[in-house]
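Weekly structure sync, notes
Attendees: PL, DS, HV (note-taker this week)

Item 1: PNPLA domain-containing protein
DS walked through the input record. Source organism listed as Marinobacter algicola DG893. Sequence as pasted into the shared doc:
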Amino acid sequence: MRDTKKQRRELEKQLSEASSYKHWLATATNLDELEGTLAWREEDGCELLHEALIRDHITAMKRCRDKGDTRALTRVLQESLYRHLGEIGNPDLYAIAWSGTKVLVSDFLDEVERSMNFICDNPMPGVSDQQKLRLFRDAERVYGRPALMLSGGAAFGIYHIGVTRALWQEGLLPDVIAGSSMGSIVAGAICTRNNHELERFFNEPGEIHLDAFRWLEPKRIWQKRHAMDQFQLLHHIRTNIGRTSFQEAAERSGRTLNISVSPTRTRQKPRLLNNLASPEVLVDSAILASCAVPGIYPPVTLQARDKDRGEKGGKPYMPTERWIDGSVHGDLPLMRMARLHNVNRTIVSQANPHVLPFISHHHQRGPGASAKQAAASLMHAQVATTLKLTRNSWSSTVLRPLLEQAHAMATQTYLGDINVQFPFKPLLYRKILSNPNKEDLEMFIRLGEQATWPRMAMIRDQTRISRTFSDCIARLEKACAANDNAAE
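Item 1 (cont.): predicted structure, written out as tokens:
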């Protein structure tokens, strides 16, 4: 028993010190073997899954493939996905073993992927490639796709680079990415680069411009009513991202960038800026607005591409409105993302300093974690109720806008379907509003990677079908284009 505890401590230490996902996964597998959860992954019997039915569907898909019956395979696949998606998406399946969930889940997803590829690559009687392409597009639209959402967090938000790099290295970085405040800078850096440029961004982070914060002199703080130099922040944004519109960014990167901004007027609604809703808006102005924390930076008027003035030209967009930090009203614009981009699975990277103390227990299990969750929920409800009552009582005072913002921050949702969160480290709070040095940059990126690796199996499994849809559609589009060229 003593040797087992010693081995467990040693393996847990190796997990915390892992320098790559490969190293982390090998150590996690050894830890699962020591704790007996590796056997749980492989054995039959699990109340979280309808195992017998899943195995029946796997057998049925194999039978249809062996017969070459694409029509029957399509029917089995549709029924199977509809019946089991809720089960295999259950987060409790990933809370037992370090290295992943039941092997049966992987077997099922393997067969689904093989079946989708078989339908894509083999003839279907009476159905042309163009018709099959429409069928896959319609099915993908019904199924949905994943999105990555990067929270605010000031300097803590640098850890988003580690999260996104870990996903990119495993081929799991979603094409739809949203960011607010500091998360918008990282999202913008990713979604304004093509694949070659993104590879350099992740592999050579030392090239990133780091000087975003510059405190104003006390006299100017009093005069300006904000504490930091907005021009320095804008220089930081443009050095890392350039000056491009949302439409231009989408065309260059093939990804969809979304940036949250909050209104200064009480009756105006928060906006989610992207190439669909605001294609001509300049990304740098959107990020500047999303970073405009009240009291730290002044509100921002958005800028749009002015084609008469060339690539560097801009003109006011909605000139009578000014915008502030996206985290105030929509740190995670879940509903708007779902409506605009047909999102069925949200991966959230959360680094907001005021949120971390209340969600640090989120991935824990047992009575202690339940007690923490109950206490956090009670405190959250109390704060929200107090702010609501105060807001109503002070409705006619100059404090009303501040109370509205505080109430919005206290009542919004800060978690998604899959959550990667910055570790709660109180000593790091002194770095929140300071520019990182090279060592800090490496530290934040490493924290982001280490926070992502335990969620990697869940992210891979729960985005696998969406990624297979994308691959199949790309092949069918290529086949249709080839057919069109041959016809000419």
